[in-house]
Amino acid sequence: MALISFGKDPETNGDHCPTVFLDDERQEFVFQGWQADEDLRAECLKTGPIPDTEAVVRLPVRMAQQIREALDAAERADVR
């Protein structure tokens, strides 16, 4: 796996914080975030089921720059 880190939450204390990654070998974005609470999960379930193999995670909007950088890198690498 070629996991490239694009950064952690800029307002974190550096411990167990949301992080944005790109796995260029598997061609996937990887997000480490806070687990969704039951209210958020219930809202998401309104659009359809969430399989046991999937999760709803939260990332703060202040991480938009890290997400953009991962998107740009995927485009440059022609990840599809």
Task: Please write out the topology.
Elements: E1 3-8, E2 19-23, E3 28-32, E4 34-35, H1 38-45, E5 57-58, H2 64-76
Antiparallel strand pairs: 1-2, 2-3, 4-5
Task: Characterize the structure shown.
The radius of gyration is 14 Å and the shape is globular. It has one domain (about 5-75). With about 80 residues, the protein is α+β, with helices and mostly antiparallel strands. The strands form two sheets. It has a three-stranded antiparallel sheet with strand order 1-2-3, covered by helices on one side. Strands 4-5 form a two-stranded antiparallel ribbon. The model has no long low-confidence stretch (mean pLDDT about 90). It contains two helices and five strands, in the order E-E-E-E-H-E-H. A hairpin with a 4-residue loop joins strand 2 and strand 3 (about 30).
Rounded mean pLDDT is 91
Which sheet architecture does the biggest sheet show?
3 strands, antiparallel
Anisotropy-based shape:
globular
Number of strands: 5
Q: How much helix, percentage-wise, in residues?
A: 25-40%
Please compute the radius of gyration using only Cα atoms. 14 Å
N-to-C CA distance: 16 Å
Strand-pairing-aware structural class: alpha+beta
What number of structural domains do the residues give?
1
The secondary-structure element order is EEEEHEH
